């Protein structure tokens, strides 16, 4: 299939070239699709028993493919990586993602938040159709095959299902090996030592879109673990976000937390210890409105009843207020309103990186050219989370992974056209 990011479709491809894709996640499968359309002979090597395991995990709560917001705002979500991702996302953007899903029998719709989902809301029908189309195009998917690097002749070293090592010939290689979160789904970061040994610079992995540790009281931990915090706002410094959160046994996670995970994480690193975040439990009201509502409650009510009757504060929100403001909360309406609008919480650290939705870190951009080829390893291309970028949840992660996979594959096709066949690009 010709399409965005495929230079000229199949007629311009390097017919018969052997290309190996390492990794069967969205970036790797997207690369395989472009390479097969260019008439390359493609093998996808995946170390897990099945492909797309993190893709399937992402679809458990409804597969968020991409986002409908204006492109300028969409691109801004990628922060410092924006200039590096611009060409890939211009070649395969949100509209292209929707068209692609529809071609696979999964039409999309725009949710109330602007996020875009397949109508089926599940990952499995889309993944099945995608794999079937790839296999129908001649892509060979080899599961339980773990990449080990290269041999002295530059051939690709692979450990097969029985552990025996084999060497595979490749005219080009696309690495889409994932980051370093959710290792049980295949992204364990083990590849970093392989490419680093060839002189490729790799930034340390850091959790992104992650939860954070807070020293809850025993009461908070025992009574409210798993309790949702709906419609709150969170702030660190001058950076704000609104959304939902969930109290965990050791801290807090959820959409609003993920939106601020980068500045919170970076503040923890800079201060080498605790940082303070602030939560607004009623972001739709200002301090004067909250004060007025609290003042309307008549009688000698307890503070708990005052908050429940005046501003309909839930039990978990009341508990959170006590965690930040102390057990003896002020009774005076304005003082109580000011605390409710700015609950301070001390963050002690990030959750384990393996629990993070995604990671920052990976192959540094200085070592990657505009085609996503490694400067020190000609003919080796990289895509997806193994490169040093991050983005919030909301469809931005999946969109960039697919776009990068396609862009890296298009770069490989171009490189193969310009390079004599039979070259082992990664030979020392």
Low-pLDDT runs of 5+ residues are: 1-13, 423-428
From the alpha-carbon coordinates, what is the Rg to the nearest angstrom? 25 Å
What is the tally of helical segments? 15
Tell me the fraction of residues in β-strands, as a range.
15-25%
Task: Describe the strand arrangement of the main beta sheet, using strand numbers.
Answer: 12-15-14-13-16-17
Count of individual beta strands:
19
Helix content: 25-40%
Structural class: alpha+beta
Overall morphology: elongated
Largest sheet at a glance?
Answer: 6 strands, antiparallel, barrel
Average pLDDT score: 92
Distance between the termini: 35 Å
Q: Could you characterize what this model shows?
A:
This protein has 428 residues and is an alpha+beta fold. It is 34% helix and 22% strand. The protein has helices at residues 26-37, 53-58, 71-76, 82-91, 94-103, 124-136, 191-196, 218-224, 255-259, 261-271, 287-296, 303-311, 315-325, 333-340, 396-418; strands at residues 18-22, 41-46, 66-67, 108-110, 115-118, 140-143, 146-150, 156-159, 165-168, 172-175, 202-208, 212-214, 228-236, 239-248, 251-253, 275-280, 343-350, 358-363, 380-382. Helix 11 (287-296) packs across helix 14 (333-340). The longest helix has 23 residues, at 396-418. The chain is elongated, with a radius of gyration of 25 Å.
């Amino acid at each position: 299939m010709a399409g965005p990011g495929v230079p000229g479709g199949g007629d311009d491809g390097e017919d018969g070239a052997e290309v190996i894709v390492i990794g069967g996640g969205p970036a790797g499968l997207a690369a395989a699709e472009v390479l097969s359309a260019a008439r390359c002979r493609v093998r996808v090597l995946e170390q897990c028993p099945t492909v797309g395991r993190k893709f399937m995990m992402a679809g458990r709560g409804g597969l968020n493919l991409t986002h409908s917001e204006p492109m300028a705002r969409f691109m801004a979500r990628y922060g410092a990586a924006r200039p590096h991702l611009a060409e890939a996302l211009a070649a395969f953007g949100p509209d292209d993602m929707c068209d692609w899903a529809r071609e696979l029998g999964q039409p999309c719709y725009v949710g109330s938040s602007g996020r875009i989902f397949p109508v089926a809301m599940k990952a499995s029908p889309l993944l099945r159709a995608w794999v079937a189309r790839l296999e129908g195009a001649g892509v060979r998917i080899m599961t339980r095959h773990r990449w080990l690097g290269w041999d002295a002749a530059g051939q690709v070293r692979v450990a097969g299902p029985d552990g025996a090592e084999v060497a595979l010939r490749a005219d080009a290689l696309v690495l889409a090996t994932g980051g370093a979160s959710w290792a049980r789904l295949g992204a364990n970061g083990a590849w970093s030592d392989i490419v680093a040994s060839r002189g490729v610079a790799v930034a340390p992995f850091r959790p992104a879109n992650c939860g954070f540790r807070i020293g809850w009281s025993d009461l908070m931990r025992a009574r409210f673990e798993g309790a949702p915090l709906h419609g709150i706002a969170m702030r660190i410094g001058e950076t704000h976000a609104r959304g939902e959160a969930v109290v965990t046994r050791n801290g807090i996670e959820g959409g609003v937390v993920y939106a601020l995970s980068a500045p919170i994480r970076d503040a923890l690193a800079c201060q080498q210890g605790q940082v303070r975040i602030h939560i607004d439990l009623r972001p739709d009201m200002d301090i004067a409105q909250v004060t007025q509502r609290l003042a309307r409650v008549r009688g000698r009510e307890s503070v708990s009843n005052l908050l429940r009757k005046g501003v309909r504060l839930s039990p978990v929100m009341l508990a959170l207020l006590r965690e930040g403001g102390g057990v003896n909360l002020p009774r005076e309406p304005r003082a109580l309103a000011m605390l409710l609008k700015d609950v301070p919480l001390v963050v002690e650290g990030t959750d384990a990186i393996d629990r993070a939705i995604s990671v920052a870190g990976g192959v540094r951009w200085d070592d990657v050219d505009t085609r996503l080829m490694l400067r020190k390893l000609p003919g080796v291309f990289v895509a997806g989370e193994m490169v040093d970028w991050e983005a919030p949840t909301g469809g931005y992660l999946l969109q960039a992974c697919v776009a990068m996979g396609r862009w890296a594959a298009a770069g490989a096709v171009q490189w193969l056209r310009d390079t004599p066949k039979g070259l082992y690009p990664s030979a020392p």
